[in-house]
Specification:
single chain; 319 residues; mainly alpha; 76% helix; globular
């Protein structure tokens, strides 16, 4: 199953997302509404299309973030939601909400700064053994636990209405997302995609070993800085808009690698798989207890927890 098959699955899920709402539309009705015809134009163009767009874009960003850090650590557990980068981005967003006005720009900047600070702490604590291996993963899990506790303290100390909003947002949700919420994130996502394309060749070379990368002309310090900034940016932008959505970044790169039989952890299959997983999970979240739409993070956490357990067992049993 290659990238073309993933694209077909993604297209099917996108059409299903345009059809899904309080009432179902047929695919023909949904596609007609996209062209401005029919009775569901406003519903499809103003409500459902932004949600589908967010699902595709955010899923791709999370898949790319997972691929970046799994290549960097050379470990399938090296995902931003496992090693504390999601929690750091959430901390930055919480500060923007509780201390500042909580505008879209402040949330984005706060999330990026929080994620980068968390990454800096993890790297500094892991520097004795480099930035790869189980040492970084274990330190990241510890940092993740501490940041999660700190985030809970921020929410408990906040004003009641802010605390309710932050607690609900922490589940990770695409509910209520509109075009106004997506303008800035999509522009940043395009810039991050260009950066990832630029570092992709060097990223695959470093995944084969530092010595090989150096002999092929890769500047490891500069490359690692750029990839960390790109990876943190990918997860932080999603967190700023939708809240922390767990396990997509963890699962998408490995699933994409296996589906496409690709060497290493390539970016394109990871992005496509992340988009498929998030869009599919959001459809499940909308359908489970309809007409109430669950936060998509509830679904991804339930499924991703099983995947994480399998990965941990696999790591423990590795010779």
């Amino acid at each position: 199953m290659g990238c073309a098959a993933l694209l077909v699955v993604l297209l099917v899920l996108a059409v299903a997302g345009l059809c899904r709402g309080d009432t179902w539309n047929t695919p023909l009705e949904a596609l007609a509404a996209l062209t401005g015809r029919g009775e569901s134009v406003v519903v499809v163009q103003a409500w459902r299309l932004p949600r589908v767009t967010a699902g595709i874009a955010f899923g791709a960003l999370l898949g790319c973030a997972g691929a970046v850090f799994q290549n960097l650590t050379r470990n399938a557990l090296g995902s931003p939601d496992v090693i504390g980068l999601d929690a750091g981005a959430y901390t930055g967003a919480l500060v923007a909400i509780t201390v500042l006005a909580g505008t879209s720009a402040q949330l984005a900047v706060g999330s990026v700064i929080g994620g980068l600070l968390a990454a800096a702490v993890i790297l500094l604590l892991s520097v004795r053994s480099g930035i790869s291996g189980m040492r970084l993963i274990v330190i990241g899990i510890a940092v993740n636990a501490m940041l999660t506790a700190f985030n809970s303290w921020i929410v408990l100390r906040a004003e009641l209405d802010v605390a309710f909003a932050a607690a609900g947002w922490s589940a990770g949700s695409l509910n209520g997302i509109g075009w106004d919420d997506l303008t800035l994130p999509l522009c940043v996502a395009a810039a991050l995609a260009a950066l990832l394309v630029g570092v992709s060749r060097a990223m695959h070379q470093t995944a084969l070993g530092d010595e090989l990368a150096i002999t092929s002309g890769v500047s490891l310090g500069r490359h690692r800085l750029l990839t960390i900034v790109a990876g943190v940016g990918c997860t932080a932008i999603v967190t700023a808009v939708a809240g922390p959505i767990a396990f997509i970044a963890l699962a998408a790169p490995q699933i994409g690698r296996r589906l496409t039989a690709a060497p290493g952890v390539p970016l394109l299959p990871s992005a496509l798989t992340g988009a498929v997983l998030l869009l599919g999970a959001d459809l499940v979240a909308q359908t489970l207890i309809a007409p109430i739409a669950l936060p998509v993070g509830v679904v991804t956490t339930a499924i991703g927890g099983l995947y994480l357990l399998w990965l941990l067992i696999k790591e423990v049993n590795r010779p």
